[in-house]
Design goal:
The chain has seven helices and no strands. By secondary structure, it is mostly helical. The chain has one domain. The longest helix has 30 residues.
């Protein structure tokens, strides 16, 4: 009973997290568009410092809170997957990705600046790199885990197809980063909905 309740709560966390992140990033992008352009961002060209740079703007505290809250939700969602799938390694990687997302509360440095990189800028970049790498590795392994379960099997190909899309777009940056972020958020939502259906 307790296990089932935890899985349901974790699934809810996994459903809420991507929606909150998408709403906050979209809203702040519009609200801080002038500021973002002032630090070099171009919505359909050079997407420099997006979305991390939103934390530098006039409503930046909202982006900082979003990084932390969504990281907590991701980590708890991964815990629910662990309980449901009875698999530790891939789900632990997903949980660590959530912790890395929480680390994005250390404010980034704008790429175009007149001062040396700060300690918190180094930490932000480090957590961002860790988040991307372990999330993609976790997805790779989760696809294999999904393949072994009848209830999850049809998510295996979808997970690997998403991974094939996000790997190049993560490194290409530019407008491609919109595609990377959208694919990750949609995959997270679909996986969370599947987790909820297991209970």
């Amino acid at each position: 009973m307790v296990k089932s309740r935890l899985i349901k709560l974790a699934a809810l966390a996994g459903i809420i997290g991507p929606v909150v992140f998408a709403i906050m990033v979209t809203g702040l992008t519009f609200a801080e568009a002038s500021f973002m352009r002032s630090i070099g961002w171009e919505p359909f060209g050079n997407v420099l410092d997006w979305p991390s740079g939103l934390a530098l703007g006039p409503y930046g505290w909202l982006m900082t809170i979003t990084f932390f809250v969504c990281g907590v939700l991701m980590a708890f969602f991964a815990y629910g997957l662990n309980l449901a799938l009875q698999e530790k390694f891939a789900t632990t990687l997903l949980m660590l990705a959530g912790f890395a997302m929480m680390g994005l509360v250390f404010t980034t440095d704008p790429t175009i600046r007149s001062y040396p990189k700060t300690w918190h800028g180094f930490l932000h970049d480090g957590f961002f790199a860790v988040l991307g790498v372990i999330l993609m590795l976790g997805m790779l392994l989760l696809g294999r885990v999904f393949q072994k379960s009848e209830h999850w099997r049809n998510l295996a190909i979808y997970t690997w197809a998403t991974l094939a899309l996000v790997v190049p777009t993560f490194w290409l940056k530019g407008p491609w980063f919109y595609l990377f972020l959208s694919a990750i958020l949609i995959w997270s939502e679909v996986t969370a909905l599947r987790l909820r259906s297991t209970q």
